[in-house]
From TrEMBL:
<keyword id="KW-0804">Transcription</keyword>
<keyword id="KW-0539">Nucleus</keyword>
<feature type="compositionally biased region" description="Low complexity">
    <location>
        <begin position="134"/>
        <end position="152"/>
    </location>
</feature>
<dbReference type="GO" id="GO:0005634">
    <property type="term" value="C:nucleus"/>
</dbReference>
<dbReference type="GO" id="GO:0006355">
    <property type="term" value="P:regulation of DNA-templated transcription"/>
</dbReference>
<feature type="region of interest" description="Disordered">
    <location>
        <begin position="131"/>
        <end position="186"/>
    </location>
</feature>
<keyword id="KW-0805">Transcription regulation</keyword>
<feature type="domain" description="Myb-like">
    <location>
        <begin position="9"/>
        <end position="61"/>
    </location>
</feature>
<dbReference type="InterPro" id="IPR009057">
    <property type="entry name" value="Homeodomain-like_sf"/>
</dbReference>
<dbReference type="GO" id="GO:0046394">
    <property type="term" value="P:carboxylic acid biosynthetic process"/>
</dbReference>
<feature type="domain" description="HTH myb-type">
    <location>
        <begin position="62"/>
        <end position="116"/>
    </location>
</feature>
<dbReference type="Pfam" id="PF00249">
    <property type="entry name" value="Myb_DNA-binding"/>
</dbReference>
<dbReference type="GO" id="GO:0000976">
    <property type="term" value="F:transcription cis-regulatory region binding"/>
</dbReference>
<keyword id="KW-0677">Repeat</keyword>
<dbReference type="InterPro" id="IPR015495">
    <property type="entry name" value="Myb_TF_plants"/>
</dbReference>
<feature type="domain" description="Myb-like">
    <location>
        <begin position="62"/>
        <end position="112"/>
    </location>
</feature>
<dbReference type="InterPro" id="IPR017930">
    <property type="entry name" value="Myb_dom"/>
</dbReference>
Amino acid sequence: MGRQPCCDKVGMKKGPWTAEEDKKLINFILTNGQCCWRAVPKLAGLLRCGKSCRLRWTNYLRPDLKRGLLSEHEEQLVIDLHSQIGNRWSKIASHLPGRTDNEIKNHWNTHIKKKLKKMGIDPLTHKLLSTTDQQSQQQQKQQEQEQKQQLQTPLTNDISDILDPNDKEPETPVQSTITEVKEEDKRMTSTFDTVDIMDSGFCIDDVPLIEPHEILAPCAPSASSSSRNSYGSSNNILGDLEIPDFEWLSDYNNMILWDDDLSSWDLLINDDGDSQLAYDPPRNQCPRMVLDQYTWTYGLI
DNA sequence: AACGGGCTCAACCGCTGGGAA
DNA sequence: TTTCCCAGCGGTTGAGCCCGT
């Protein structure tokens, strides 16, 4: 008996999301929060399946997403993590705040793979390509032995589920138990969290730096500052959003940054200077705002 | 200007695991 | 224990963009 499809696909829209659909989804999530995704399209008035809505939100519309290319530091982190846990993109993404597994997976396949190959490193094994061939036979033998051992003594801790088989070789920095892997996860997370942003290699070359004083017109949270008309425009997305009286904005300094053509909104900055909401229109519809979260965070510090 | 090949990345597909009934 | 639903995951696809000819 097969699994039921995630939704009734008849009449469901597929393909790229339109700005209108994005608006509906953002509006719904901001108003109601994330609930049962299956119910979202119906409640939000979308002809999409719940799964599509969830993916669109998590991979593109989510407020805490960073945009733009991965920095050198992030890239190195991805490489390090990949060498230890393989293609577990969501796990890797969890170490890079604001990055999605899809984004990292794409970046790996389009950039890092080539980069490593250019450097003479096998992206699968993270070993020098020249030595890979020599080791492949040894690996094969070792894997055969491991398979025999597994048949004789089943693993109580399924380390094979955590670690890439290629990382089981002694010369790689591999932990031998799940506990150690988890501890390593924690260590790496905390390392990333506490990294000095000035030394982190964040790439600020990709976008022109804008000093905060050049772009900010901070205003204290107040009833008047939550007026849609303060920032809205008849030809922009935010103006059309049915955000309930901006009550959800009451904690923010209501900083909204507009594209030159006022066709998109990018950031809302709260009192702590955190970016809370970012809207990035489809790349073929309007030029992307030249300010991204990196730049902004960097500017604040 | 037109064409074609390569590249990028958003979106989709199918599968898995967890949890509820 | 079994069945079903749901969210999440990783692999794959294809439309649109870019760039060289």
